[in-house]
Amino acid sequence: MHFMLVYNLQPDYLERRGEFRDEHLGMAWDAQKRGDIVLAGVLKEPVDTAILVFKGDSKDAAEEFARTDPYVLNGLVKSWSVREWATVVGDLATSPVHPAKT
Question: Which of 25, 40, 47, 75 has its CA 20 to 30 A from that of 98?
Answer without folding.
Answer: 40
